[in-house]
């Protein structure tokens, strides 16, 4: 059985973690297959967005697979290569020029919540639950902490991490962990609406905008001002911006070139 299904659906590439019996828990092969899918999407001139989801309706991803004999594998480091494969995927998604969307079909726990946080946008079925239960097995969610600290208020984050308690999809939306929580029957309708909005907009603006957002997030406000002063005129000089201006003046739909 292929552990990650990769399928192009129109201008979107779907990456489906296909381990429902294990609540779509990941191992190194799963992470590498997701990474391969991200690279495939980036190499295509037809793909405008990447959708990451899980098989079934029980779990989006329950984190690292602890069922194997080498249960510490999701957390171990090769001494000859002191980098974790999960962190490598997070970096790849952050640097990906396409918007990456989490379609959360079920629970997102531990490293699975990290995958949600790594994505640019997220829509969840309202039965999904979110949490970092690592403390219950003697660990702490270190690898996804940089994401969580940017999104979740400090005291709520401390409570989640110290108790391992789960929150609902509605609570996750309030905290900003996800964009929207909808009934499971409406999940794909909401996702399609989001994908249509992405496909109708300038790919150049999205590409440069994602780069800018990630860059400015790590800057002081003065550094961000200086960066923005350089970015805006550069964006205005692109073919897409010129086409957008012309279409606005001529009251017509723009035809994007992505340049």
How would the global form be characterised?
globular
Q: Would you count the extended β strands for me?
A: 10
- Sheet with most strands: 6 strands, mixed
Helices and strands, in order, run as EEHEEHEEHEEHHEHEHHHH
> Low-confidence runs (pLDDT<50, min 5 residues)?
none
> In the residues, how many domains can be counted?
2
Strand numbers in spatial order across the main sheet: 1-2-3-5-7-10
Gyration radius (Cα, Å) is: 19 Å
* CATH-level-2 architecture of the largest domain: Alpha-Beta Complex
Strand content: 15-25%
Q: What is the fourth-level CATH superfamily of the largest domain?
A: 2-enoyl-CoA Hydratase, Chain A, domain 1
What is the CATH C level class of the largest domain, in words?
Answer: Alpha Beta
**Span of the ends, CA to CA:** 40 Å
At CATH level 3, the topology of the largest domain is: 2-enoyl-CoA Hydratase, Chain A, domain 1
Compact summary:
The chain is 45% helix and 16% strand.
Explain this structure:
This protein is of the alpha/beta class. It folds into 2 domains: 4-200, 2-enoyl-CoA Hydratase, Chain A, domain 1, CATH 3.90.226.10; 203-250. It contains 10 helices and 10 strands. It has helices at 28-43, 85-95, 111-118, 145-151, 154-163, 169-175, 187-200, 203-217, 221-236, 239-250; strands at residues 4-9, 12-17, 49-54, 59-61, 100-104, 107-109, 121-125, 129-131, 167-168, 180-182. The protein has a 6-stranded mixed beta sheet, sandwiched between helices. A 4-stranded mixed beta sheet has the order 4-6-8-9. Strand 2 (12-17), helix 1 and strand 3 (49-54) form a beta-alpha-beta unit. The longest helix is centred in the N-terminal third of the chain and has 16 residues, at 28-43.
């Amino acid at each position: 059985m292929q552990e990650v299904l990769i399928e192009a659906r129109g201008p979107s590439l779907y990456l489906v973690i296909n381990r429902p019996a294990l609540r779509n828990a990941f191992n190194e092969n799963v992470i590498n297959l997701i990474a391969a899918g991200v690279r495939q999407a980036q190499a295509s001139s037809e793909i405008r967005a990447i959708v990451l989801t899980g098989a079934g309706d029980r779990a989006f991803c329950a984190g690292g697979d602890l069922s194997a004999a080498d249960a510490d594998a999701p957390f171990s480091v090769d001494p000859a290569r002191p980098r974790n494969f999960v962190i490598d995927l997070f970096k790849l998604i952050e640097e990906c020029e396409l918007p990456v969307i989490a379609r959360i079909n079920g629970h997102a726990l531990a490293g699975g919540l990290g995958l949600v946080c790594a994505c640019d946008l997220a829509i969840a079925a309202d039965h999904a639950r979110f949490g970092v239960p690592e403390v219950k097995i003697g660990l702490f969610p270190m690898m996804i902490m940089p994401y969580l600290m940017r999104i979740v208020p400090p005291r709520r984050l401390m409570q989640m991490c110290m108790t391992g308690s789960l929150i609902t999809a509605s609570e996750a939306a309030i905290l900003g962990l996800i964009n929207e929580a909808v009934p499971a029957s409406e999940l794909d309708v909401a996702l399609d609406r989001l994908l249509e909005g992405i496909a109708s907009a300038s790919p150049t603006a999205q590409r440069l905008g994602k780069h800018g957002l990630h860059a400015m997030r790590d800057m002081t406000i003065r550094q961000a001002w200086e960066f923005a002063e350089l970015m805006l005129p550069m964006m205005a000089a692109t073919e897409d911006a010129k086409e957008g201006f012309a279409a606005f003046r001529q009251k017509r739909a723009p035809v994007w070139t992505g340049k």
